[in-house]
């Protein structure tokens, strides 16, 4: 009799769990249908694929809000200290030496820094970074950089291009980027965000980039129009970049806050007014938010 009761209770609990999962999926489905057009849903692999991405996005977003709240509180304290130092004329940049910590949850080392004022930042150092082998292989090259940072494995750009149908389309199929990333590493479960579906693109991008770079210490990828990026100085290209670092600081000379990101650019074909764009560059978040259409995080 006791065993029968236990089986009945177990069966009831399983039913409740299944009902909860069905309800959760139904809720996600409604959100997806209100957020994306039918063409967008079909483009990104159908309703089930978009629902699964939305589930992953919500899971990450929930954690991200906690991290961003902590950052906001830390920055409030930083600003209070800064204002007090200015008020008492005791501001001395020589006392704000950086403290550096190193994280190696990935193959490449992530160096985080902070100072006594509360400025903070960090980026990957010593990672593999190679120019794109064809003028439309920025997507495969960016993925190659990200995988090398995470695992130390150098997957050929041609292999990644084949996975992303780059050769067939003449441009990288953005729908397959997170698939390639998840195929070659298991440190981070990558999904995507189409920023045009968010009312506040700035907040949506900040949440994704800050979580990956500052908290999880994994690279993120962004698809941009280069026109507003500093190094491109108005040159308009569709392009992919690997985000590898962040900085949150008060400029010591003006007192204004700057919150931006460092990214690795695989394009060695364009030389702008500030030199060849290949290598590492940085822009403020507001600039990247204007430039970015799609983020893989």
Description of the molecule:
It is globular, with a radius of gyration of 22 Å. The chain is α+β, with helices and mostly antiparallel strands and 297 residues long. The protein is built from nine helices and eleven strands. The strands form two sheets. Strands 1, 2, 3, 4, 5, 6, 7, 10 and 11 form a nine-stranded antiparallel β-sheet that branches. A two-stranded antiparallel ribbon has the order 8-9. The longest helix is centred in the N-terminal third of the chain and has 41 residues. Helix 3 crosses helix 8 and helix 4 packs parallel to helix 7.
Key terms for this structure?
297 residues; alpha+beta; 9-stranded antiparallel beta sheet; two-stranded antiparallel sheet; 9 helices; 11 strands
| Distance between the ends | 52 Å
What is the mean predicted local confidence, pLDDT? 88
Low-confidence stretches: none
Shape estimate: globular
Number of helical regions = 9
How many whole angstroms does the radius of gyration measure?
A: 22 Å
Total count of strands: 11
Helices, strands, pairings?
Blueprint: H1 2-35, H2 38-43, H3 47-87, E1 99-103, E2 109-114, E3 120-125, H4 138-151, H5 157-163, H6 166-169, H7 177-184, E4 192-194, H8 201-216, E5 220-225, E6 238-250, E7 257-265, E8 271-272, E9 275-276, E10 279-284, H9 285-291, E11 292-296
Antiparallel strand pairs: 1-2, 2-3, 3-6, 4-11, 5-6, 5-11, 6-7, 7-10, 8-9
